[in-house]
Prior knowledge:
The complex is a heterodimer of chains A (290) and B (190). With 290 residues, chain A is of the alpha/beta class. In chain A, 25% of the residues lie in helices and 17% in strands. Chain A has six helices and twelve strands. Chain A has helices at residues 13-28, 49-58, 76-89, 137-145, 150-163, 268-276; strands spanning 34-35, 64-69, 92-93, 102-106, 119-123, 174-176, 180-182, 201-206, 211-215, 221-223, 250-254, 261-265. In chain A, strands 1-9-8-5-4-2-3 form a seven-stranded mixed beta sheet. In chain A, α1 crosses α2. Chain A is globular, with a radius of gyration of 20 Å. The model of chain A has no long low-confidence stretch (mean pLDDT 94). Chain B has a single domain (3-189), classed as Rossmann fold (3-Layer(aba) Sandwich), CATH 3.40.50. By secondary structure, chain B is an alpha/beta fold. In chain B, β7 (169-174) and β8 (177-181) form a beta hairpin. Chain B has six helices and nine strands; from the N terminus they run ααβαβαβαβββαβββ.
Amino acid sequence: MTEQSYNFAYLDEATKRMIRRALLKGLAIPGYQVPFASREMPMPYGWGTGGVQVTAACLIPEDTLKVIDQGADDTTNAVSIRKFFERTAQVRTTETTTEATVIQTRHRIPEVPLAEGQILVYQVPIPEPLRFLEPRESETRRMHALEEYGLMHVKLYEDIARHGAIATSYAYPVKVEGRYVMDPSPIPKFDNPKLGGNAAIQLFGAGREQRIYALPPYTQVVSLDFEDHPFEPSKAEHACDLCGSEVSYLDEVIVDDQGNRMFVCSDTNYCTTRQGEGHTGRLSQKGEAA
Amino acid sequence: MFEAEILSGGFADPAHDRARAFRACLEAMARPGRVQTITGAIPPAPLSAAAGAVLLTLADETTPIFLGRGHDTEAVRKWIAFHCAAPIVAAEDATFAVGIWEDLRPVSQFAVGTAEYPDRSASLIVECDDFDRHTVRLSGPGIETSQTAFLPETDAFVQNAAMFPLGFDSYFAARNEIFALPRSTKVEAL
């Protein structure tokens, strides 16, 4: 059996120790990007190699793992990572948010509030929020050291000058505990309010960029804004067409060649749970819910 | 020396035990002041089971260790050499420091990181008898409102928090229990 010839949770013990030390430093300095010696993983960069390494370093045999990709449990990335850990760590997996102890996520925070005892692991493509403003790592590192975040405010201001509003709609920068400006990974800004005051531990892994950072529970996280242009979490102005929820984040799906479209919850577990409870939306099939 | 004592006392099931011990460290660092159970190590005295487990989980040849005076025994040195392969060094070069509070003072001797790399700092593992007598109130990241805890001293940790994002992080170990105090936690005497 190939999988049994691997160490628990795939990575060797020395690698896990190195990642674990980085995670603890990350928790001690919320929002600060800790460099780590990211390993090659049996999946391409951009498929969550950072998140997978963080998950591997955190998993215990008693864990129940959930993996979501843009909120969905059943997309390729989520299914492959779930299978990877079923094989290499023999952990239980689930699609139910409340049953999971570790949730690896690509670009969403589940709709159901997380609880103590849960760990949310984010897959991060570009951990440096200042990277598109300043390409040199030596400079961005100095900017973080000096708390020199004026450039980020200029960027948001230019958004307002050009579009009349802050046009950034995902990977919206936040300030952690009044100190570090942090990239929350490409989650929609709708999810930003859930970053702060969250009961769960939030860990961020960027494999290609070799950075780990973290938010302990109940950390103060503020989305950057201006007094006259306050931060606004936004979503499509519709209700879910399958479960009728008016508060969840929605995906827009084109359903035919005539340009007809439907809106569905991006959090598939939230949506199916609601449908199971008898909630219906505009396009629910009559009689099927019964 | 007692060879058996030095060669034994590691994790019985290393990958799984280490994962569980790390999870205790992770929960501890994420929720300052809250006590976690950590088991699996049987190190030679005066190392506590908890301190031994933290070392088995986090220390290796890349993490130099400083031993406080009371902990700098041949048995402890050999146990760490065999199980962690970590070099024993002077306080200012240490990634981890182990000892009772009096032996670790003055804590200004430990690395607190640099402005650009505040993670290049020491982690202290402070051996305690118990955590029963709460002396401080903690607040900050990881704490919903406030949390009381035992600390061997208040001033050193107030000063450490004032240096944020620089500073050292601490684990407090007694028997098979630990709690942590990251530099981000604000400390006030009760």
